[in-house]
Amino acid sequence: MRRFFRRCGRCIALEWRLFSRQREPMLSPFFFTIVLIVMLQVGFPTPQQHVHKAMTTMIWLVTLFGGVMRLTRCHDPENEGGVLSVLRMIPNMAVPYFVGKVSINFIILLLLNLVATLLVALFMNLGDALQYLSQIGLPFLLGLIGLAVVGTTFSSMMPSHGRRELVLPLIAYPILMPLIIGLVQCFEYNPMGSVVELRWAWIVLLVGFDVLMLLLSLFVFEHIFESR
Amino acid sequence: MKKFISMPVVCLLLALLMLIDFCMIFFYAPIERHQGLVQKIFYWHVSAAFAMYAGFLLAGFFALLYVWKRERKWDVLSHAGATVGLVFCTMVLVSGPIWAKPIWGTWWTWDPRLTTTMLIWLIFVGTLLLRRYFIGDHRGQLYAAVLTLFGVLDIPLIFFAVKFWRGIHPSVLGQENNMPLEMKLTLMISNLTVLCFFGLLFGVKRKSLWLEYRVDALCQDWRINR
Predict the structure, then answer these.
(1) DSSP string covering B105-160, please?
(2) For residues A80 and A149, which has the higher predicted lDDT (pLDDT)?
(3) Most A CBs within 10 Å: which of B157, B163, B166, as the mutation test of the A interface?
(4) How many other C-beta atoms are found inside a 10 Å radius of the C-beta of residue A81?
(5) CB-CB contact of A155 with A164 (8 Å)
(6) Residues A156, A171: contact at Cβ < 8 Å?
(7) Model-level pTM?
(8) Chain A interface disruption, residue of B160, B162, B165, most A CBs within 10 A
(9) ipTM score assigned to the predicted complex
(10) CB contact under 8 A, A182 and B139
C-alpha cells in the first residue's frame, strides 16, 4: 500500500514538472476562457440585479469549455517518445498514472476556475468577490473533481485519434450532464439575485456523481491503459 | 442452437399481434374524455419507453461483460442493445411532442422527464458515434463499451437530478391511477407487442452485426494467408 501511494506521489510530481515546463498547451485554455467570458459578456448583457445568478452559470460554463480543451490533450506528453509503452511495461502502473493525471488536471481546472471567477467578478463590477467565492467554493470543487475524473478517463481513450477535439466533447458533455445541471441548480438566490444558501440535495447529487464516476473510472482505466 | 420457428413465421406472428393491438387501441379502448383521439399515442409511447430502457440496460450489462471478458459476442450484443434502444428512444421522443402539442400547447418543454430522455438519447448516440470514429480499430469496441457503462450508470443520476424539478409529465409507474380496465388491458397488450417487436429487432441486429464481424474476420484471414 505504501509503495502504491509512493508511486502515486511520484506520478503527481512528474505531472507537475510537465505542467510547469509546457507553457503553450497549458496557457491556451486560460486564453480560451478569457475569450469566452468576453464573448458571453458582449452577447448576453446582464442586468445588475441578476449578476450573481449569471456569474455562477458563466463561470461554470467557461471552466467546462476551457477545461475540456485542456483535457483533450492531457495525455499528449506520454505519447511522444514511447513513454506510454515504457509505462505499460511496469506492472500495476495504470492506477498511479491515472491518479497522477486526475490530480494535476484537477489543479489546472481549479486554477482555470479561479482565473475565470476573478475575471468575471472584475468585468461585472462585483465588490464582494471574496465572499462570493467562499459561497460557491464547495459546489465548484465537487464539479471540478467530476470534470477532471470523466475528462481524464475519456481523453485517455483517444490520445492519438485525429479527430479527438471533435469526439471528446461529443461523448463527455452528455455524461457530464448531471454535474452541469447539479451545479447550476444548487444555489438558492434571493429576489435581489444574490446567493443565499446551498441546496443540499443537489450537493449530495454532485458527491454521488463524483464517487460513482471515480469508481467506474478506476475500474475501466486499467483496460483502457492496456489497450492503448 | 436449433431453430424452432423461421423468421417469416416470427414476422407474421408479430404482424398479427400488432393488428390485434391496433384494433384494441382504436376500437376497444375508450376515447379519453378530455384529450380525445390523440391520447391513443399513449399506448405505444409508454410501451416504447419500456423497450428503450430494456435496450439500454441490456447494452450496459453486455458492455460490462465485454470489458471483463473481452469476447466479441458480448460486444455484438451490447451494440445491438444500444442500437435498438436508441430506435425506441427516438420513437418516444417523436411521439411525445405529437401528443404534447394539442394537450400542453407546446411541442417541447424542459420538463424533467423530457430532459432525461433527451440526455439518454444523446449519450447512446455518442456510443454509436464512437464506434464509427474507431471503425476498423479493435479499440473502438472497448471504448464504446466503456462509454455505454458510463451512460448506463449516468441514467439513475440524471433521474435524481431531474427528480428535484417540478414537471408536468404524468407518471405511469408507481402511482395509483383510475384508468378503466379496457385501457389497462390495451396498454398491457401494447407492452407485449412492443417488447416482441423489440425482441425481433434485437435478434436481427445481433445477427447482422455477428455476420459483419465474421466477414471481417474472414477477410483478415484471407489477407494473412495470401
Answers:
(1) SSS----HHHHHHHHHHHHHHHHHHHHHHTTT-THHHHHHHHHHHHHHHHHHHHHH
(2) A149
(3) B157
(4) 9
(5) yes
(6) no
(7) 0.84
(8) B160
(9) 0.82
(10) no
